[in-house]
Amino acid sequence: MSPTHTAGIVRASGPRNVDAAEGQEASVRSNVGPSPAAVQTDESAATQIRELESKVGQLEQAVESHAVIDQAMGVLIAVGRISAAEAWDVLRETSMTTNIKVRHVAELVVTWGATGHLAADIRSELSRRLARTGI
Fold first, then answer.
1. 74 SS3 class
2. Phi-psi label, residue 35: left if phi above 0, alpha if psi -120 to 50, beta otherwise
3. CB 44 within 8 A of CB 36
4. Which of 16, 17, 63, 80 has the most CB within a 10 Å radius?
5. What confidence category does residue 33 fall into, taking pLDDT thresholds of 50, 70 and 90?
6. Number of structural domains, the chain?
């Protein structure tokens, strides 16, 4: 016969004898909760989820930045009748000269394309850069 469980106590019945200490240890293990390895796995999974969420956020921001830069390049291509490579150079060089991030310069150019308004320092730098490309 096999051991029977009653209220967390293991009782041996029949020819098979279960040591009382083993029964108590099994009872304690079942009431303690998850093993340290299971807790570590949960923590590891939670850390991995946080890292992946961070990467997703970074990728979303990169896609958004790329879209704004592409739109600004489109404005410069249309206004300056220049190539995509030249438009990129104009944005990049304007960014370096004015000490403004490329993404922000791009946002200003896109706004300029939509509203006609552009800060004087950016306008003069863009004009100077576009004049160097041949317009």
1. helix
2. beta
3. no
4. 80
5. low
6. 1
